[in-house]
Amino acid sequence: MRLSRGWSVFLVLVGVWNWVIWPRFAVAIWNDPRSFSGGAPTGFLLVHVALIVTSLVVGTVTGVYGIRGFVASAKAKR
Asked: What gap in Å lies between CA 3 and CA 68, rounded to an integer?
């Protein structure tokens, strides 16, 4: 399957967006008083860590597909 340049750029932007937003959110969760109880991580923290890691993985894969699609469309134009 070939992606158009427009869709490829969109996928790259989605990947970048995930890497801009989720680390900032991770800092906010880490600093939230509900994240630790007596020095131990709570369910609140663990659930959010799972969400953040999943989102970063999906964002990375999406961005890589976008880059690959962009490169393939550039090669096809030659």
From this structure: 9
